[in-house]
Write a structure and sequence with these properties.
Blueprint lengths: L1 E6 L9 H20 L3 E4 L5 H11 L4 E5 L14 E4 L4 H9 L4 E5 L3 H12 L4 E4 L4 H10 L13 E4 L2 H12 L1
Parallel strand pairs: 1-2, 1-5, 2-3, 3-4, 5-6, 6-7
Helix pairs in contact: 1-2, 3-4
């Protein structure tokens, strides 16, 4: 299974170093456990959440694919990415490319780019797991949805809420066996 990870980069205008550091253990644990299940991890390939999850994937011997914007001269993949893919596209377009290539998305915190990715996943019929308690648009979306699992009446993709890594794994098991 191909799992997309979306969330905070390390932009200090959006998330403080301390807030990001508080997510490190959960992100690395998530990466490790997903890799041990044999899932291939896709993310934006950069810093922040993407790097933390990729570090856990690498530690467990898994594969992480970084769907990067622009080209290698403009943006460098984090050192834990197994397969960097430089798209030549801007941030929003490269995110759409990721949504077309994953089976599920896990959202962790995030700013406007993450919000766009949540809506893009939904519009493309990709189930979404909101890792609650991680801040940003992940928690805002969880709050907006309440008990509902869908953004609108079309019910294009279910949205789940999980408070910890084990709950995420349980949802993945229920979705994909």
């Amino acid at each position: 299974m191909r799992v997309g990870i979306i969330g905070f980069s390390s932009d200090p205008r959006v998330v403080s170093r301390d807030e990001l550091e508080n997510l490190r253990e959960r992100c690395e644990k998530l990466g490790e456990k997903l890799a041990k299940k044999g899932y291939v991890i896709f993310n934006g390939g950069r810093d922040g959440i993407m790097e933390m999850v990729s570090r856990g994937v690498e530690r467990a011997g898994g594969i992480s694919v970084g769907i990067l914007p622009f080209d290698e001269e403009s943006v460098k993949a984090n050192p834990h990415i197994s397969v960097p893919i430089y798209t030549g596209l801007d941030y929003q377009m490269r995110s759409l490319l990721m949504m077309k290539n994953v089976d599920v998305v896990i959202s962790i915190g995030g700013a406007v780019g993450t919000a766009i990715e949540i809506f893009s996943a939904y519009a493309n019929g990709v189930p979404i797991i909101l890792f609650t308690g991680t801040g940003g648009w992940t928690d805002k979306m969880a709050e907006c949805l309440g008990e509902d699992r869908y953004i609108d009446g079309r019910k294009l993709a279910p949205i789940f809420k999980a408070n910890d890594v084990d709950e995420i794994l349980k949802i993945l098991e229920e979705l994909f066996g």
